[in-house]
TrEMBL record:
Keywords: Hydrolase. SUPFAM superfamilies: HAD-like. The keyword Aminoacyl-tRNA synthetase does not apply. This is Cof-type HAD-IIB family hydrolase. One of its GO terms (molecular function) is hydrolase activity. It comes from the Bacteria. It comes from Neobacillus pocheonensis. PROSITE patterns: COF_1 (PS01228), COF_2 (PS01229). NCBIfam families: Cof-subfamily (TIGR00099), HAD-SF-IIB (TIGR01484). The lineage of its organism: Bacteria, Bacillati, Bacillota, Bacilli, Bacillales.
Length: 273
């Protein structure tokens, strides 16, 4: 049995069920893991405020990986220089180009910008923004996004939301623009954009150094394409039963779905048995 010291868990579609909740039995399994002095790290595309309630519900004290590795916090309760373990931002030039392309060619796509623990939009009544707000239970701030970018303020993530066809076309357009960013679809209607210096694997490597653990002592659990690299990297890579087949094929173990307490099964199989 591999001696796992750190577990990295995706949130949506993995830790949470389809109702965006953690079941009691999954929570109990996580608590048992923590009692064994194994770090349980939440790693997500979400902003810090979108994870804090889950972090507190699980009663964990581990660092937090936000925006798919673009921002790592030692303590999600406080944002400050002493709490930031890692920060990778999109350049002003690239952020402005993404904004211009989206607004000019894809006006029906919702443009959302994230800076530290701020979610910045130009229209909070947009249906896509309202949908995301309901999911993560955070309210965005209405600002002049273009001005924010022009002032060279930090941009940790850009989220574009819209109909699948538009998101696919926007991704192709941005990939053709030779930007120094990583674009990936976390689902058919979401395009997540971060710096090339941010990824879940880079986040894992940063915390391997922080905890002085080896890659062979790491377990990673996820459900989608943006989790595939970390699943392949980890000594034990687990795909949820609700993951696409390509993600399952990249894993060492396929657990049950997020609506069948797949997280609990994975922890029992490799940690709690």
């Amino acid at each position: 049995m591999v001696n796992i010291k750190v577990i990295f868990s995706d949130i949506d579609g993995t830790l949470l069920n389809s109702n965006h909740q953690i079941t009691n039995c999954t929570k109990e399994a996580v608590n048992k893991v923590v009692q064994k002095e194994i770090e349980f790290i939440l790693i997500s595309a979400r902003m810090p405020s979108g994870i804090k309630a889950i972090y507190n519900d699980l009663k964990i004290q581990s660092p937090l990986i936000c925006y798919n590795g673009a921002l790592i916090l030692n303590n999600p309760e406080v944002i400050g220089n002493n709490k930031i373990l890692y920060s990778a931002t999109i350049s002003k030039i690239d952020a402005n180009k993404i904004y211009e392309i989206t607004k000019e060619k894809f006006p029906n796509v919702s443009f959302n910008l994230f800076s530290y623990d701020q979610w910045l939009v130009e229209n909070k009544e947009d249906k896509w923004t309202k949908q995301e707000s309901d999911i993560i239970q955070v309210q965005p701030m209405v600002v002049n996004v273009k001005k924010h970018i022009a002032q060279d303020e930090a941009v940790h993530k850009i989220l574009c939301m819209g109909e699948p066809r538009l998101i696919s076309e926007l991704k192709s357009e941005l990939n053709d623009s030779l930007l120094n960013v990583c674009c990936y679809r976390s689902k058919d209607t979401y395009l997540e954009i971060t710096s090339n210096d941010a990824s879940k694997v880079l986040g894992i490597k940063a915390l391997e150094a922080y905890f002085a653990v080896k890659p062979g002592e790491v377990m990673a659990i996820g459900d989608n394409f943006n989790d595939m690299a970390m699943i392949e990297y980890a000594s034990i890579g687990v795909a949820m039963g609700n993951a696409p087949q390509q993600v399952k094929d990249a894993s060492d173990f396929v657990t049950k779905s997020n609506d069948q307490d797949g997280m609990k099964l994975a922890l029992e199989t490799f940690i709690l048995s």
